[in-house]
Automatic annotation (TrEMBL):
Keyword field contains Isomerase: yes
Recorded superkingdom: Eukaryota
GO CC term (a single one): cytosol
Family: Belongs to the GPI family.
InterPro entries in UniProt: G6P_Isomerase, G6P_Isomerase_C, Phosphoglucose_isomerase_CS, SIS_dom_sf, SIS_PGI_1, SIS_PGI_2, WD40/YVTN_repeat-like_dom_sf, WD40_repeat_dom_sf
UniProt record, GO biological process: gluconeogenesis; glucose 6-phosphate metabolic process; glycolytic process
Catalytic activity annotation: alpha-D-glucose 6-phosphate = beta-D-fructose 6-phosphate
Catalytic activity, EC: 5.3.1.9
Origin species: Didymodactylos carnosus
Protein name (record): Glucose-6-phosphate isomerase
PROSITE patterns (UniProt xref): P_GLUCOSE_ISOMERASE_1, P_GLUCOSE_ISOMERASE_2, P_GLUCOSE_ISOMERASE_3, WD_REPEATS_2, WD_REPEATS_REGION
Matches recorded under Pfam families: PGI, WD40
WD repeat residues: 538-579, 580-621
UniProt keyword terms in alphabetical order: Gluconeogenesis, Glycolysis, Isomerase, WD repeat
Amino acid sequence: MRQLFSENAQRFDKYHIKLETTDGPILFDYSKNIINDEILKELFQLCRERKVEEYRRKMFDGEKINFTEGRAVLHTALRNRSHQKSINVDGADVMPDVHRVLDQMKKFSNSVRNGDWKGYTNEAIKDIVNIGIGGSDLGPLMVTEALKPYGKDGPHVHFVSNIDGTHINEVLGKLQPEHTLFIIASKTFTTQETITNAETAKEWFLNKAGNKQHVAKHFVALSTNTKLVTEFGIAKENMFEFWDWVGGRYSLWSAIGLSISCSIGFNNFEQLLNGAYEMDQHFQTEKLETNVPVIMALLGIWYNNFFGSETQAILPYDQYMHRFAAYFQQGDMESNGKYRTENGAQVDYSTGPIIWGEPGTNGQHAFYQLIHQGTKLIPCDFIAPIETHNPIRNHIHHKILLANFLAQTEALMLGKTQKEVEDEFQKEGQDIKNNALVYHKVFRGNRPTNSIVLTRITPFTLGYLIALYEHKIFVQGAIWNINSFDQFGVELGKQLAKIILPELDKVKPVTTHDASTNGLLNFINSQRTWGPRKPILLQAHDRSITKIRYNREGDLLFSSGKDKVPSVWYSVNGERLGSYNGHNGTVWCIDVNWDTTYFVSAAADSTVKLWDVQTGQIKTTYGHETPCRTCAFSYDGHMVLYSTDEAMGRPCELFVVDIRS
């Protein structure tokens, strides 16, 4: 490339495109690539031979180009800002439904942001927790982070995706139920990770709120499964619809973007859509030779299939964009990580690259070393806004940031020759003869980069950028003749996990898998802290056992019996925490509260006793004239419900007591 630039002083003029957008110009510079006119001509010819333009038309027209699942691919319809244009799927115009859901999102997000939406204590919402996974999480998370300056007057938005309980526990630990709204994002409302996290959030909420009727004020759903949504406790009118022609990794434009709208406001969410729509127009109407998504896609093909490059780095020089590369890890790798063509044949060429990256200048002090002097060719996309949202100290931070962006693209292209290193040494008075350090300071250069420079990260320009990368992915999938819109690779592990899950409670060794999986599973079972590792015989009651209860965590077992003595056990090893004397008759029932601080027992001696789990002391005794038969804690653990027997002419009676008073 050094030679190409030296031979052509107008190389930048030839290989850059200035995009005039509604929100200011965006410059795309692809001059620092290992290309010339002849190479580009061949790449555009490849694009035409693979009928990318026809495939593009089919997508925008709603034809079912997702050929493995028989679905249209119409995330572009979600941001179709032309109110005159209809888009049909199976003969029906989808745009009325799109506008209906957008109106629903507008009303809801406005009511949350202006304080009209009240929680069960009649207070406004201060925090929103989006519970989803994959496309239901990565897109909204990336956008709300990238547009954080636009969300300062809205509620704080948090995201929970991982089934690891640490994720939701850390988020909930910062919140108050009365001020928190949960958005449950699952099209089927059966996604294991999402629904498990949703149930945990609901349990946490009810532990404070108590009344299940309050769920409707604090939970909404992004789903199409009305039955399961309403059974969960969410009101039907608080269910936001999206459709099977919206792929998960392209869904932030749909109701999945509700958390975005609540964070930055619906007007800004519309600007996000407007930016994407403007890029859609560019992609649809611009000829291939000046079509930025097409050029980016072809350059990726060039390095992937002709240079053997396996990865692509996305390097935004804006801290708010710190999740952009992670978002397109899913967008690109889940789309084009395929090895079968449309007719089922196995490809004999490389397809989707590994996508990675971090914001500058953090990456410069981490992995740029490998990009500069490593043995792998890693094409890089640099994204840099001219203006910052935080111009502190008279823009000094941002000027240093931009200087580093410009320097890195220049350094990667030019490198540093041995002669340049030797000249440097001589200027510094260093001996270059037999100095091996010279070779270590040589940079070969010729590292390809694209640069995207925009005025500022705004909702509009972010939407524009996201759509740009979406269309790049589309073009590459079309050229490779793979389906960029299914994700069967996600399913196999999930299927096997359902088989393995109950085996994590086994006592006997598991032998149903391969030797490695069996060995790993059996080691986990031998060291686990839930459930017995082997059969345990608990011997303490002298007479019949009447009731057993586990606490919420499952690590303690509570038992009652005709020997009048309630007992508590460690369920993992069978050790007894304690046996508690205090009743003078059969203990018919036992229960433990939500946080395992108290347990309650009901007995034939006409008493109900409240015990402190740790000390074994009786906190309160409730006495009656007839035997007490049953007892149970309320959901929040503050109330005890118990009953007495019918005896001595007295009817059965139910009592509710508040253990705090």
